[in-house]
Amino acid sequence: MKPKLSDFPALVAFSKSIEAGQIEPFMNDARLLDLLPLLGYGLLEQIDKLEEKPVKDWGQIVLEDTLPGTYATRHERVYRALVPKPEQDVPESPTQANPEEWVYEPLRTLWVHYLHPYWVQAGYSRFFNQHGINVVKAGITVPLDSEKNSYAPASPAQRAQVQAAIDSKAEALYSRLSVFLKSSGLLPDSTDTCSPNTRRRRRKVRGV
Question: Mind telling me which InterPro entries this protein's record contains (predicted)?
Answer without folding.
Answer: DUF6712
